[in-house]
Amino acid sequence: MAHHAHTPGVIPPPRTRWIWNVFWVLLAVTIIEVFAALPSIRVHFGATFFKIFLISFTMFKAAAIVAYYMHLKDEVKNLILSVVLPFILIIYLIVLMLIEGSYVTLYRTVVEQILVQ
Amino acid sequence: MSAHTAEVSTQNPSWSGGTSPYNVSYGKLMMWFFLVSDAFSFSGLLIAYGFQRFNHAAEWAVPDKVFKSFPFLDGEYPMAYVGLMTFILIMSSVTMVLAVEAGHRNDKKDVIKWMFLTIIGGFTFLGSQAYEWYHFIHGTAEGGIVEGTRYFGAMLEHNEYGHKLFGSFFFFITGFHGFHVFSGVVINIIIFVNVLAGTYERRGHYEMVEKVGLYWHFVDLVWVFVFTFFYLL
Question: What are the tens digits of pLDDT across the range B85-96?
């Protein structure tokens, strides 16, 4: 090994099996997603279940890309935490927007009722 | 003296100075932080999209009925083409990670091969997006009735498929992502030319390929979310 590192012009053979393994998983997940989203298949799911199913599959795909393709898994803990922890704020924003969204919907329906009267 | 230094370094070796606590180069660390901030921009856009869609759920466009055309084929193939676009982008992500792997081995020939395929994948994706936009803007021959008016195709202010905000968000979010892909392709080409010129071979490492690789994977990552929230849900 050390001998190879000191010899100029000697290129070690590629080790790419893991890259293709991750690829097949990503491809399989994408195909399942597209298939499940087909209009004729989608109707068999409950609306909430369908959303949770799609979002969790998407999160899984995102995690696979970040961890393996972007090599975040191989970085030190300090870097992983610095990159991942800020996204707590995004979860917070989603929660805020869900609360605000149901309020705005309620408000709109009330205003529309008043306008009809 | 040496015992003292040893004691300090066992307490918290990474933060005691002298070395990067992140164990990466400055450029790579900044790329990560840039990507985090960029991810925040896209999160803001997608959350705004979700918010408005939730508010106008009844009038919102149904993605299956909007994105159903396929090049060179007649008839309706809902989601088939965006599925293919997703595949193209994931595939170009794979070629990028293969280029990075080849860079680790200082294998110039392999880096050139995989970088080239990544650029081809990027252009293919951009072409597909242009096709999508063309069909979205031109719409269908019969048009669609929204709030009592018949519209043909999609503009920023209104579209035939549903609520007017659907078109605005589509153009903005996929446009913003497409611009990211475009700049990614441009950066990839610059790095590709540098690889051809042997810049990184002389430097002794291919870390620049890793950095553009991070950006390219991020573009793929954003598409994964745009795909789910815009087309599938």
Answer: 999 999 999 999
